[in-house]
Batch of 2 targets.
Target 1
Amino acid sequence: DTEVTQTPKHLVMGMTNKKSLKCEQHMGHRAMYWYKQKAKKPPELMFVYSYEKLSINESVPSRFSPECPNSSLLNLHLHALQPEDSALYLCASSFTRAGTTFVDEQFFGPGTRLTVL
Amino acid sequence: SQQGEEDPQALSIQEGENATMNCSYKTSINNLQWYRQNSGRGLVHLILIRSNEREKHSGRLRVTLDTSKKSSSLLITASRAADTASYFCATATRRGGKLIFGQGTELSVKP
């Protein structure tokens, strides 16, 4: 199974709502990533988890809260978002080696299209 | 600042023609990767070339890497309408633990 799944596909939320994005992979990858992508722009890295530990936070506002409950799951909790947070949120996973910063090919999910009203 | 810059930003060709996209980067890398993205979808990995490799092929794709010029190119031969997509290069530095994406090239292949 070489698939990364993301739910939901679309999400509309108000600025006071709390919601979560979910990502799952069963390839045995121990590195998982959250990206944010605006239209006609490249993906921007938000967070990296390596062996279920947060290894990179690209100075993301605290209204985005990542969680890695186990090696197959990655969540992104959303609270008090702003309209400018509307974007495509992509999850990815890749093989990695413990104790290294090696970056292999990444497998992406289809994304969650988020709209903040 | 962005590690990778790509040109052209947009490219329109006829089916059957070849398409060439270029990527430049600023710092030493461990590997460079190319991805394709169909409109509003997830990215698909195309090819990875390591810093000690100069050329790599995969089907109709040919990637070159020139570390002295800090640049790479992606050639798609005999293009098809289904190749219409955005193409991104992404670099992995030796200690960064992450990919940094270029701005992308939007390819349109007309039947």
Target 2
Amino acid sequence: GNSVTQMEGPVTLSEEAFLTINCTYTATGYPSLFWYVQYPGEGLQLLLKATKADDKGSNKGFEATYRKETTSFHLEKGSVQVSDSAVYFCALGRGYNKLIFGAGTRLAVHP
Amino acid sequence: NAGVTQTPKFRILKIGQSMTLQCAQDMNHNYMYWYRQDPGMGLKLIYYSVGAGITDKGEVPNGYNVSRSTTEDFPLRLELAAPSQTSVYFCASSLSNRLAGTNTGELFFGEGSRLTVL
């Protein structure tokens, strides 16, 4: 079946630290992969995506590369800010744009 | 820009009561979805619709019903509420790949409806 596994949180970092949130997936075929972010009290919003193997998605300093050989889509950012504190969800896309989500990873960034 | 609008934002129900969560989008999206979010569990798909008059079950449809009489609206009905339905519910919409072009696959979410069943 299709599933997404994310590293458990919370992840606590100091401002300007390097961020990695691991994400691996199990799927038939070659789905599109997504990272969504949820700020406190809000709905989810798309952060970045990749539609095929070796694609790199990037947005707001965040990056993730679609690795077919390791079935991974790890999220990275070189220097986090307090404003990046949120919950991050890895997801894979299936037919009709249905998304299968990981459990989410809470990130807390301190000054 | 309204986007996806959900009402109510908060609701407390007693066991056995019924209610409808409303969802409306003004982006002329053909696809719409209902997800529930439980702590530490990510989001699970309840129902989805690919156009007016067409709905289908997701991963966790039991205890819920939906309808899609217009492109804009996609209400979620809870019959005989149970404590297991305590959750945060999110409505989302998207365009089919054929219509979305390079934006394919992006879902737009509402702010959520927090439901407590006591």
